[in-house]
Design a protein that fits this description.
Helix content is 23%, strand content 29%. The protein is α+β, with helices and mostly antiparallel strands. The chain has 2 domains: 2-94, no CATH class; 104-294, Jelly Rolls (Sandwich), CATH 2.60.120. The strands form 3 sheets. It has a 7-stranded antiparallel sheet with strand order 2-1-15-4-11-12-13. It starts with a helix and ends with a strand. The model is unreliable at 1-94 (pLDDT under 50).
Length: 295
């Protein structure tokens, strides 16, 4: 009996506690590889109830040994890897992944003009800060958070202000509000039905250049599909070029626009500033607004 108690104590001490991994699963120490030790040969096999415990004739190998409760009965097959190991609760799929995993995430906090930027599993982040490139090309996803409503605007007509997608400064300026190009966007709840407008936008020596209506519009239903669109910005000697392409369901989008460049003699690869996702205008974000990019 003392031997039985000692063996039982040993078996309990061999049962590992679950180890939490980052994806919310368990490694297989709980009931995986230790399954054979927990209820296998050692627990109910030859040593516990076999030759030593009750003698050869009374309860030997045939009666309660390896065949009766050994590896096949409660070992690796019964509670091993398949039952409660990696397959049961360990894979990232069990815990789920964040929306648009692999796309860098922009987030505009309430009361902010500029968005934060996190990798969200992306292998690289969109261009940001100092650069000397002469253009940008990226894919961007809007979601339903773009349907914002300004209830306390800084100025009465701020709902009609153009917000900004990632862009570039130009003409030796680091301030896009002076010289630069970008795509712009705004939610129009005053239209029936409401739509998201996306348009070309530029600044020439502090003068804002933008259209009265969007280059394209997205309905609420199209916006909720969270379909990526492709945005291209190009600086040539005399003009800024805008190209917007993509598909939303069966709808094919392929639109172009241009604006003049005031500094025709400036280098195309002069020092520039690569900007990110931006709200305003004069008012700040009235609610959390998110977007995802790959560049």
């Amino acid at each position: 009996m003392k031997l039985r108690a000692l063996l039982f104590s040993f078996v309990l001490s061999a049962c590992g506690t679950p180890i939490v991994v980052e994806d919310g699963g368990l490694v297989a120490t709980d009931a995986g590889a230790n399954g054979a030790l927990d209820a296998g040969v050692t627990d109910a096999g030859v040593t516990d109830a076999g030759v030593t415990d009750a003698g050869v004739s009374d309860a030997g190998v045939v009666d309660a040994g390896s065949s009766d409760a050994g590896a096949a009965d409660a070992g690796g097959s019964d509670a091993g890897v398949s039952d409660a190991g990696l397959s049961d609760a360990g894979s990232p799929t069990d815990a789920g992944l964040p929306p648009h995993y692999g796309w860098a995430k922009y987030m505009l906090p309430i009361g902010s003009h500029s968005a934060t930027l996190t990798a969200n599993g992306a292998s690289r982040l969109p261009l940001a800060g100092f650069t000397s490139v002469s253009g940008r090309a990226y894919d961007f996803i809007f979601d339903e958070s773009a349907m914002y409503m300004l209830t306390m605007p800084a100025q009465p007509d701020d709902q009609l202000d153009w917000n900004k997608l990632p862009g570039l400064s130009d003409c030796g300026q680091l301030d896009l509000a002076q010289d630069g190009l970008m795509f712009a966007w705004r939610w129009r709840p005053d239209l029936m039905p409401p739509v998201l407008e996306i348009a070309q936008y530029a600044n020439n020596g502090g003068t804002h250049l933008y259209p009265n209506a969007g280059l394209i519009t997205l309905t609420e239903a199209e916006l909720r599909t969270e379909s990526p669109l492709h945005y291209e910005l190009t600086i040539s000697a005399t003009e800024y070029r805008f190209h917007l392409t993509g598909m939303i369901g069966a709808r094919v989008i392929d639109e172009n626009a241009t604006y003049p460049r005031r500094c025709a003699n400036a280098s195309l690869t002069s020092f520039k500033w690569a900007a990110g996702f931006y709200f305003g205008g004069t008012s700040t974000a009235p609610s959390v607004i998110t977007g995802w990019a790959q560049e």
